[in-house]
Specification:
Layout: E1 3-7, E2 11-15, E3 20-24, H1 33-51, E4 55-59, H2 66-86, E5 89-93, H3 95-103, H4 110-121, H5 128-144
Parallel strand pairs: 1-4, 4-5
Antiparallel strand pairs: 1-2, 2-3
Helix pairs in contact: 1-2, 3-5, 4-5
């Protein structure tokens, strides 16, 4: 099973078995918000083709900030539509599930998530979106292979 994990946001963390990173989907000058969704879909297609992805996992949308919830929900719609069209399975995990898996506490802050990624997986970066995607990848790998 080949997994792509997505921490969907304007700065979108992602992780596969072979690589991880952060895509910048901040709206560009003279660009509609729909264009960043098209760029997001193109990145999904690119990685899925290169890595022969069979499952995409992502963080379940929640929170208190209306605009962030709307943006993340749109990205989830892109993920799920893409997966349905391509015959790829998908699964969502809550932020608390990811944090508990990573640190043992369901309310860990960004610094703790980065620290845990370093301790568990040798992550040397400082990007919380990448760290979250790495933890999500390993959570899904553990959960889906049982």
């Amino acid at each position: 099973m080949k997994i792509l994990s997505i921490d969907q946001a304007s700065n979108c963390g992602w992780c596969t078995q072979n690589a991880y990173g952060c895509w910048d989907f901040t709206t560009r000058k003279d660009e509609s918000s729909g264009m960043k969704m098209l760029r997001f879909r193109a990145k999904l297609a690119e990685v899925c083709k290169l890595e022969d992805i069979s499952v995409i996992v992502y963080e379940r949308v929640a929170g208190f900030h209306k605009n962030s919830i709307i943006h993340a929900s749109k990205m989830v719609a892109i993920i799920e539509t893409f997966c349905e069209e391509q015959g790829i399975n998908y699964r969502a995990y809550s932020a608390a599930e990811i944090k508990k898996y990573a640190t043992g506490k369901g309310n860990a802050n960004k610094d703790k998530m980065i620290e845990a990624a370093g301790l568990k997986y040798g992550y040397t970066g400082s990007n919380d979106n990448e760290a979250d995607a790495i933890h999500l990848y390993h959570l899904a790998k553990s959960d889906l292979s049982e």
